[in-house]
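Example 3.2
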Amino acid sequence: MANDFLSNLQTVAIQVLILYMIAGLGFAADKTKIFVQADGKRLVDLLFNIILPIAVVNSFLSMERTPEHIKGLGIAFLLAVLTHLLGVGISSLTFRKRPKMEQGIYHYATTFSNAAFLALPLAESVVGKEGIFYSSCYVAVFNVFAFTYGINQISGGKAKINVKNLILNPGSISVIIGMPLFFAGVTLPDFLSDAMGRVAACNSPMAMIVFGTFFANCNFKNIFAKKEIYFVSFLRLIVIPLTMMFVFKLMGVEGTMRTALTISASAPIATNTAMYSAKYDNDTALPSELVGQTSVLSVITMPVIVALASIV
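Structure, written as tokens:
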């Protein structure tokens, strides 16, 4: 068992290191003004609206329609919902005496992981296309919670839930398109399948380069100075993923699905925490600090937790 743990730890750690090395390119590009955070924000639109949806749809098309995969799809959605409900439940018990707007940032940060821009690429790197298949379920559930509970919290209760945005967003639409194609067993012509595969391959490196530009603008003095940030990091990186790891075990989830969902649950705070804060007139410095610290610490925590999940 110890050998299995060390082997899995090494595998995941190498993949995390590779992704952060790619993020280092974005960091360096920002510092040298070749490709700055403002450029990264524009690229996020391309990633979120075109490249990520194509990667998700491509993963559904790439999966063989087997009873195992059909059952796994439903289980993955259920477990993604449970993971977010756990985050909502834990966060609701914290920072109750803080101002509503500040409290909302902490609650959003605790609940939402960097599922699309870090977990999805890592799941692909560690377990291949099947990792994207199951992680896509997590991203879809992420969007539902983000557009409801998330914006309510980060706006201090001021923002109204827009049902249209809840459904008509790229993450949800890609799953809505991908699932029928998967169940129907659709096979695309080779030229179209190849084109989608090449676009989908852009998701991981581009997402990490963009992530690097945001990381380059963190205040590194502040991200390790506030005890509140350490507390949120503890909840986001350790408590939630470890709790869900045992839930996965109790439900008999094994193999690729457990690895993919553990990666999604153990990822650092979502990078859109700062973007939503800006959109809803909340503080942007605090979410940047939260994202910065959890991103640094996740280099250690994610490999350990994912390796543990494979042996428990």
